[in-house]
Write a structure and sequence with these properties.
It contains ten helices and twelve strands. The strands form two sheets. Strands 8-7-6-9-10-11-12 form a seven-stranded parallel sheet, with helices on both faces. It has a five-stranded parallel sheet with strand order 2-1-3-4-5. The longest helix has 18 residues. The protein starts with a strand and ends with a helix.
Length: 294
Amino acid sequence: MFNKIVVVEPVYIKKEGLEELKKYCKEIKVFKTEAMSNEEKIKRIGDADCILVSHKTVIDKDVLDSCPNLKFIHLCCSYYGPQFCKTDIEHATKKGIKFAYLKEYGDNGVVEYTIASVINLQHGINGKKWRKEVNDLTAIKVGILGLGDLGNKIAKAFNFFGTKVYYYSKTRKEELENENLIYKPIDELLKTVDVLSINLNRDVCLIGGDRLKIFGNSKIIINTSIGQCYEVSSLKKWLKCKDNFYVCDDSNINDNQDLLNYENVLYLDHDSGVTKETLDRATEQIIANIKANC
């Protein structure tokens, strides 16, 4: 049993899950606002031996060194490796602090959001229409940037509708390729496709420089990556063409709130992957991981 669990900020867990956490600790403290400064984070964590954090808050070396009782960190988000994580996992591991994370808990919502965004723009739903003529999904070409678990699910969803799908990934996935899923180097992919679905690791920037010129106009970008994966100035230039559309959610707008002033930016003010079922899956995984490590 943990002595004290601290939920450092809002995370993906149901109220019932917070109640169940009480079974695995002597004390629990839950904060409902984000912790901005290191001083505030250290104050919140205090003498806790277990903490829950989201993908937003940085838990760096100074925070870890200032909380000597810490034994377990639950990342209430996906984990793509230490280089993409806002918690200093390498330093935590050196200090003997264990960690766990969520797996494939919100993918379904993101897939649905991606497909729906294209269909809405095709048919002019909500007053935004992509092209004069309405095509069905068999007539467009979709490019996937990042063919991890999520990218692969989005590719399969478009394939179901008969869409031709191309992909670029740092590591080629030849075992997944077929006549409807074709690998292309990134610049060739951009020349080929009408819709670009970005599903990269946190803050991996592949859309910058001349790449949006290569991509061209009368196109759609749907970004569901966490963090900033584009060069802001290049994206703004591309958005000057009213026939282009940029679709994003709360995971990647970051400090670039001025993008919301563009009429052709379609913004969802929450994480597109969050559904009731997402919270169910996240809660179940968190409870299981806490139970296994307490």
